[in-house]
Amino acid sequence: MRDIIKETKEKISKIKIALSLDEKVDEMKNLELQTSDQHFWDNPKEAQSIMQKINETKDKADIINSIETKLSEIEELDEMLEKDPDPQIELDIDKELADITQILGKFELEQFLSGKYDINNAIVSIHAGQGGTEANDWAEMLLRMYLRYAERQKWQTNIIHQVRGEEAGLSTVTFEVIGKFAYGYLKREKGTHRLVRLSPYNAQNLRQTSFAGVEVLPMMEEKDASDFVIPECDLEYKAVKATGPGGQHVNKASTAIVLTHKPTGITVHSSRRSQHQNRETALYILKSRLWELEEDKKDQERKKMKGEHKIAAWGNQIRNYVLHPYKLVKDLRTKVESNSPDSVLNGELDPFIDAGIRLVA
Fold it and tell me: Is there a cis peptide before residue 263, judged by omega within 30 degrees of 0?
């Protein structure tokens, strides 16, 4: 126990040094003094930037301070146990140390998420590849996997738009994931996902390979509005009949919206409960797609400068899910593997997500 406490303290010290946390806390206190000035909000953009710095530093300092306080309490309990052993208290301490390790691990992981929109909510789209019903079923399996993963992360999810397959599964589905760092965690899930299994959809029960493409975008929110100003004349809204399942996800009423960005031809669908919600959501998604378009252009320019030549294709295959003749899920970028595809498809994606976050671009 004392070794674990010592190692945790050393890890915290290294984190504080790496993040210059003490210096940032001093800077935060000076910035907080500025917020009391009566003219602080005269320049809203600058004021918002300062408030963001304050909140980011405060969040980090609060997590570290909370862990240090808990460690001090555990050390006091440990001293008490030397004089008066209590098996129940020892179990409680073990659990507390496990919780601290988990919190600290997540905190370390999130330091890799330094992208401008990594902290934002995410928009995830899944598109069935060629293969008819098989591919549609695979798209729906992926949807379930990501919804389960989000549930494990205690994130909220809402389906924005979906098109059912003719016989089963989904042709395409778009949903939002609401949670801190949702985009940062999920962004490397973008690409082509490949499934190999015995087909449940043919009489011969033959082995079948199916593909589905996953897209992940940051949800552009009101605070990001100044980054993307789209002239109203570039937008075309069209009301269409919603085709979702109704219930808690998509309203059956004719409230769906198709938003087209005329200069690029980008089309966005939203099938929420009201026209107002749909217009708002569709615009945020469009801004996200335009941001992605600009990022892709920058990425292509960087690759040209480095002399990298890669054939452009619809997504890059990132992960294989093999259910037959053996069981294996393997990420082709990080080389992370799992011999339990059932668990992975049930949302246990942590090893893959964590390795993806640490992956050097």
Answer: no
Domain 122-308+316-358 has CATH 3.30.70.1660: yes
State both tokens at 19: 């993040």
**How do the domains of the chain map onto residue ranges?**
2-110, 122-308+316-358
59-110: pLDDT as tens digits: 999 999 999 999 999 988 888 888 888 888 889 888 999 999 989 988 988 8
The set of residues, in sequence order, having a beta carbon less than 8 Å from that of 61 and lying 6+ positions away, is 21, 24, 25, 28
Model confidence, pTM: 0.81
- Distance, CA of 123 to CA of 150 (rounded, Å): 12
- Give φ, ψ of 37 to 5 degrees: -70, 135
Helices (H), 20-118: 21-35, 44-83, 87-110
Q: Which CATH superfamily is domain 2-110 in?
A: Release factor (1.20.58.410)
